[in-house]
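Q: what sequence does this backbone want?
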């Protein structure tokens, strides 16, 4: 069995699964296939895992940075944005509750862009993603309060994303810091190591 190779890959949103690549001559009984095991990522932002990157205008060399891994926030932004197109993921449902029942204006949080510019339209989206920081700070504060509250539906929908409330709270603190300095902020994401 020394020829086995373990492959780690992000699967179905946030879970990082390990798969054992078997030699061609070895087969497993059908009840063992597929076989996966949840293993939390070790580094702050493992290679190939999406992360949030913030930009400031004007530049803020002393700006605070995220102290936690932010892939859960990237997934929330993506699924919350997709909710308007009929996405039914638990993150989309959580966004719908936040917007509909908690009356949170999600627009500041959903104003984000991919850092990987491949064509002029990507550049345009990236440029249009600049925003005033104060509304983003307020939005994050409202979301954090709701996610940390006792709404069982939100708790159930986000239970597999234990860092989400902390990520949103941290973004809110950074946005408030930015607003105090009269700067604008831009939320972007990228795959770490790309």
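A:
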């Amino acid at each position: 069995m020394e020829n086995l190779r373990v492959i780690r890959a992000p699967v179905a949103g946030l879970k990082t699964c390990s798969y054992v690549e078997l030699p061609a001559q070895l087969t497993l009984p059908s009840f063992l296939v597929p076989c996966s095991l949840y293993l939390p990522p070790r580094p702050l932002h493992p290679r190939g895992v999406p992360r949030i990157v913030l930009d400031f205008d004007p530049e803020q060399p002393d700006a605070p940075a995220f102290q936690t891994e932010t892939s859960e926030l990237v997934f929330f932004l993506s699924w919350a944005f997709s909710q308007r197109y009929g996405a039914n993921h638990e993150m989309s449902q959580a966004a719908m509750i936040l917007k509909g029942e908690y009356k949170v204006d999600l627009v500041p949080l959903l104003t984000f862009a991919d850092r990987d510019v491949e064509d002029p339209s990507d550049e345009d989206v990236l440029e249009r993603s600049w925003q005033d920081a104060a509304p983003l700070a307020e939005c994050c504060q409202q979301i954090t309060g709701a996610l940390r509250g006792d709404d069982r539906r939100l708790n159930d929908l986000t239970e597999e994303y234990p860092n989400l409330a902390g990520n949103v709270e941290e973004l809110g603190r950074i946005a408030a810091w930015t607003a105090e300095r009269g700067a604008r902020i831009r939320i972007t994401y990228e795959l770490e190591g790309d």
